[in-house]
Task: inverse folding
């Protein structure tokens, strides 16, 4: 059989808008530190909400690292982190010398639960790293109330949550700092890239300096060209003008992008939920507006051993799948060696890593692709019942 259909799990949605925007940068002479970066920051802030201060950076991990530096979190401090997340969420904590304290997630949404945060607090806890799992917003009002009651900072990892809101507020604007990702598989891309976001003007100003070596002033602010001083131990986490031009073109189509994701997610969920032996990760909280990064489903325990086979059959028929995320972070070798791993402590995170698979819902699926994806995934998953 020759395969005629090929539906990747994720594929950047690139149009002539991006091509034109990048070419325009190449035709000029400013390749970094320029007007596109400023325009991307402004447009991103407008999309998120009035009080967002945005700073372009080289990745989401860079945004998270800068968050901890700017908020003064480091050696001797503990940061509560979800066990079920991308390793970047936790690496950022490790890099400032703070200790990550892992907590298990809600089995329904994959998100951190305010109740488990409370149980993990110690006198050394300084911050909570919140992750909006596959775009499902955490219960931020409850988390913020807890954080405020204990004097903790909140850092939001919004890598998969562009367009996610709790109530009317966009995620990333509840806590003290947030990171968004423009890696190719995310909602929008700039090749590589990220956005640091905060409600606090002074934190944004400090990150602006930290992302560029800690230099005291920008080129355009120097009275003597080439003359500057260095105030702090910064990094080079800048985004180029080529990336910013691309990100801006992508952001212009965000509403259409989100609509397509929601449409695909809802239809796929409505169909898959009739199948026994699996459940779909989602929230039924009426305040939670997901960004629908993907549709992640969990096979029930009796079917869990079939995951590899199910993914294999989908892949054979040209349908790309993924796993969010393949291990609870504390089970990854680096963390297991450093802190030890007690699997009893993360049953829900383990279940998501070991029994879930993710299907695509992005705007790269045209109508025919989507119909095929729905048809094939239904028939393959239906077979579970007979096994
Ligand atoms: C992808 C991802 C990241 C990393 O983003 P980069 O821009 O590649 O650094 C961080 N956190 C989460 C939750 C992610 O899914």
Result:
């Amino acid at each position: 059989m020759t395969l005629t259909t090929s539906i990747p799990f994720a594929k950047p949605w690139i149009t002539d808008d991006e091509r034109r925007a990048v070419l325009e940068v190449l035709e000029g002479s400013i390749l970094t530190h320029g007007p596109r970066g400023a325009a991307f920051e402004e447009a991103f802030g407008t999309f998120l909400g009035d009080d967002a201060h945005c700073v372009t950076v080289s990745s989401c991990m860079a945004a998270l690292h800068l968050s901890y530096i700017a908020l003064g979190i480091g050696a001797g401090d503990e940061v509560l982190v979800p066990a079920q997340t991308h390793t970047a969420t936790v690496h950022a904590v490790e890099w400032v010398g703070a200790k990550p304290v892992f907590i298990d997630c809600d089995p329904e949404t994959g998100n951190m639960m305010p109740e488990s945060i409370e149980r993990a607090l110690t006198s050394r806890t300084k911050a909570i790293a919140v992750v909006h799992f596959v775009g499902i917003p955490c219960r931020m009002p409850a988390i913020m109330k807890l954080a405020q009651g204990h004097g903790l900072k909140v850092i939001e990892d919004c890598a998969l949550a562009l367009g996610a809101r709790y109530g009317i507020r966009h995620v990333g604007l509840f806590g003290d700092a947030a990171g968004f990702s423009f890696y190719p598989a995310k909602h929008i891309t700039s090749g590589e890239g990220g956005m640091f976001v905060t409600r606090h003007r002074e934190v944004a100003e400090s990150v602006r300096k930290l992302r560029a070596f800690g230099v005291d002033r920008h080129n355009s602010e120097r009275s003597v060209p080439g003359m500057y001083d260095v105030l702090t131990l910064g990094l080079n986490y800048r985004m180029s003008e080529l990336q910013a031009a691309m990100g801006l073109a992508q952001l212009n189509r965000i509403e259409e992008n989100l609509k397509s994701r929601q449409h695909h997610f809802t239809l796929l969920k409505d169909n898959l939920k009739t199948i026994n032996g699996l459940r779909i990760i989602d929230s039924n909280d009426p305040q939670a507006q997901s960004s629908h990064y993907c549709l992640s489903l969990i096979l029930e325990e009796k079917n869990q051993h079939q995951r590899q086979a199910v993914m294999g059959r989908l892949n054979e028929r040209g349908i790309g799948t993924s796993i969010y995320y393949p291990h609870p972070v504390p089970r990854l070798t680096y963390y297991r060696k450093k802190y030890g791993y007690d699997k009893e402590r993360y049953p829900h995170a383990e279940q998501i890593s070991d029994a879930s698979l993710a299907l695509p819902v992005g705007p790269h699926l045209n109508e025919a692709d989507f119909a095929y994806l729905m048809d094939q995934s239904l028939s393959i998953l239906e077979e579970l019942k007979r096994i």
User: Anything to note?
Assistant: The chain has a mean pLDDT of 96.
